[in-house]
From TrEMBL:
<dbReference type="Pfam" id="PF04977">
    <property type="entry name" value="DivIC"/>
</dbReference>
<dbReference type="InterPro" id="IPR007060">
    <property type="entry name" value="FtsL/DivIC"/>
</dbReference>
<protein>
    <submittedName>
        <fullName>Septum formation initiator family protein</fullName>
    </submittedName>
</protein>
Length: 119
């Protein structure tokens, strides 16, 4: 009987090997489908990243439109006089004798006359 119980357990293990291997392979695929890098649980992270990228894209498109408008104003055939005046004054520091300059701090504080700002 000892031989037949060994034989029957060995036969049982041989019969169960392929179904068990199949279950392991299927379980592996299911695990990756749920928990893997591109699995179901990663979709929430993808949605969050997509929302962040959409906000960044909108910001960059607005900046692109602003720069395109500014470039169009600098077209040599039809330069905007106000923008040209602004650039010449800012870049070259030209001031007419009858003008008063108010220095505007970058931090949003109240402006001060240039004479007071220098002291």
């Amino acid at each position: 009987m000892a031989m037949s119980s060994k034989h029957s357990s060995l036969a049982l293990m041989r019969r169960a090997f392929w179904p068990a291997l199949g279950l392991l392979v299927i379980g592996n695929f299911v695990g990756y489908a749920v928990l893997g890098e591109n699995g179901v649980l990663a979709w929430g992270g993808y949605r969050h990243a997509k929302a962040e990228k959409a906000v960044e894209l909108a910001r960059l498109q607005a900046e692109e439109q602003r720069l395109a408008h500014r470039a169009a104003l600098l077209d040599p055939r039809r330069t905007d006089p106000d923008l040209g005046d602004e650039l010449v004054r800012r870049e070259l520091g030209f001031v007419r004798p009858d003008e008063v300059i108010l220095a505007m701090p970058d931090d949003g504080a109240a402006p001060q006359p240039a004479a007071q700002a220098r002291h």
